[in-house]
Prior knowledge:
By secondary structure, this protein is α+β, with helices and mostly antiparallel strands. It has one domain (5-258). It has helices at residues 10-14, 30-43, 123-136, 138-153, 159-172, 178-189, 201-212, 220-234, 265-277, 310-325, 327-330, and strands at residues 5-8, 48-56, 61-68, 76-85, 92-100, 106-107, 115-117, 242-248, 251-258, 286-290, 296-300. The strands form 3 sheets. Strands 1, 2, 3, 4, 5, 6 and 7 form a 7-stranded antiparallel beta sheet that branches. Strand 2 and strand 3 (61-68) form a beta hairpin. Helix 2 (30-43) runs parallel beside helix 3 and helix 4 crosses helix 7. The relative contact order is 0.11.
Amino acid sequence: MPKKIQHTTKANLLSIDLPQHGTSYTVISHEFIIDYAQQALANAGFIVLDEEYRCTADGQIAQGVYKLNYNNDPDLAMMFAWTNSYNKQVKFKCVIGAYVNKTGSVMISGDIGNWVRKHTGTADIETQETIDSYISNAHMYYNQLCSDKAAMETISLNKRKQSQLLGVLFAEYEILTTEQASMVRDQMKKPYHVFTNTDSLWAFYNYVTIALQNSHPKTWIEDQRILHYFISSINNFAQAPRVVVTEVEGVVMPDLYIDPDQTNLLNQIEELEIEEIIEEPVIDEVVQYTDPIGNTFEAPVVPSYVEHDAETEKTIEKETIEVTEDEFALADNFDLDFNEETDEDSDSIPDFF
């Protein structure tokens, strides 16, 4: 863990001087978030069983995690987390998730609405409303994570596949530092905690979330969200309804809940645009056919392709290459059914080493 990041106390966060950034800056203090969030949780019937705080050395960037008393799953407790800053390096954000009792790490869904707000205008009022909104829908978010966890426990993931997932998270998504990637690798060899099946996706997921506990408060929530999004996407986990965020004049605000099974409006627009650009085929030839009893038929000949000049052909070829090369970045078609050796076979060193 970097030396400038440290666990801290509520009292220390409250002692940090408030920022002075001019009249347009609306202060959202650490104290305001702590007091309002805990009161809102209490109003909703939740009890904060434990609270954890981390911050930079000067306290300018801080995060809080509240373990709650709700746990339909014995392995998972409900969790509320927030991140805030005084130095404009990160906007205020909050999230509902699950707290893994065995490891002390957390789960944050990649699809739930993660609300962020600049410290301007009525940001303090909207912060209250947003905290209330997430807490009022906390059970929905928590239950979805419990479902994802149950699914991960049934998915077998040997060390070869775990290594491949680790490589993608480190090299492609860049949510792990070199030190954190090493932590995951070490746990793959000797887990910090005992799991029913160390060759399960659930065990590997925990190896990563444990390592992510050392992420900088500025990126911690997003790192957790990206991890869960990646894992749920490649395994086709069901998605919970989420808060869709809309940006209005530079302000990101929660809009409305969307049913994931509902037809996507953007897809409809795209289909209409495709229909509009399809041109009627040019018919410049007619073929005649006479059957054995003397009936004659005529049918238009529709060209099966459109001719392009040389320059257009080059452009199309270039675009095709670019799409092919960037295919992985556009869609994560990650295949867990690799044609790999068993763990026992992989102990032998291949000839090419």
